[in-house]
């Protein structure tokens, strides 16, 4: 534990609609990739915690699923997960995409945040996509909508404004202990990151309903005598037809996904990896509370 008297620490939740760049921001703030990022909305499904530690502060960032209008039980679970993170925080970062149109869900989110009653910083992301002079009207619009304590434009993708935002955040953190050792970047198990990496490759390589109908469960994760790590995972889909597409002709698609994932997992676990993927059907799992629980979507 850090005994320094003025040490600051706290939980900072990253909340926003799907695809606004929450996970990209988490990775930029960490200086390394811990959350998966894809061009498709609804990529993140869980709270992903990332810990940033310096001599003077520790921030525990909570990345969350994008808040949407729920159509499946899975969506209900995702929205609940996001708001639970907001309620647990010392500070909220509300992220928006500079190009996003006004949505109904935004009003709902701001109302809910207002009820939670925590200090909230508006983070306007993707400013690399617009001319600088169009920012001011947007800032004015948002400051009339909600009593944000600060408004900060950034580009998470280009890592612009990240240091400034971190400093701003630290200014609002309470004095507190160092909750995690300084070399710990997350409190999630390696298995989680392995499953997420596989899911990211599925999001990137497949289309239509397939990414959304996919869930990954790690079955085995063990070190073999030859120094290789053996990992077997089951990729669940909702229908037989999806299984056919994901497996591909002569298994080529799933093999390709497995190769992409393996390279990244090897980097992450710092060891050669043997990755075995099996695709199984769990019919309409997104609509069933019991099946969601089986797949690890527990409260
Ligand atoms: N141009 C630009 N693109 C960005 C920026 N930040 C994120 N993106 C892109 O936006 C897309 C979505 O990014 P994510 O980080 O996955 O968004 P998210 O909010 O975590 O999305 P969900 O997990 O689905 O809620 C990706 O294609 C990112 O590369 C940015 O600052 N500028
Ligand atoms: Mg995300």
Structure description:
The chain is α/β, with parallel strands linked by helices and 299 residues long. It has 2 domains: 165 residues, P-loop containing nucleotide triphosphate hydrolases (Rossmann fold, 3-Layer(aba) Sandwich), CATH 3.40.50.300; 105 residues, K homology (KH) domain (GMP Synthetase, Chain A, domain 3). Helix content is 36%, strand content 22%. It has 9 helices and 9 strands. The protein has a 6-stranded mixed beta sheet, with helices on both faces. The protein has a 3-stranded mixed beta sheet with strand order 7-8-9. A hairpin with a 3-residue loop joins strand 2 and strand 3. The longest helix has 18 residues. It is globular and about 55 Å long. The protein starts with 7 loop residues before the first strand and ends in a 5-residue tail after the last helix. The relative contact order is 0.14. The model has no long low-confidence stretch (mean pLDDT 96). Bound molecules: guanosine-5'-triphosphate and magnesium ion. The site of magnesium ion (MG) has 6 residues, from helix 1.
Helix content: 25-40%
N-end to C-end Cα span: 30 Å
Strand and helix order = EHEEHEHEHEHHEEHHEH
CATH class of the largest domain: Alpha Beta
Binned strand content: 15-25%
Strand order of the largest sheet: 2-3-1-4-5-6
CATH topology-level fold name of the largest domain? Rossmann fold
Give the beta-strand count.
Answer: 9
Output mean pLDDT.
96
Low-confidence residue ranges: none
What hetero molecules are bound to the protein chains? guanosine-5'-triphosphate, magnesium ion
Largest sheet at a glance? 6 strands, mixed
Number of domains: 2
Q: What sort of overall outline do the alpha carbons produce when their principal axes are compared?
A: globular
Please tally the helical runs, counting DSSP H or I stretches of 4 or more residues.
Answer: 9
Radius of gyration: 20 Å
> Structural class of the secondary elements?
alpha/beta
Q: What is the H level of CATH, i.e. the homologous superfamily of the largest domain? A: P-loop containing nucleotide triphosphate hydrolases
CATH architecture field of the largest domain: 3-Layer(aba) Sandwich
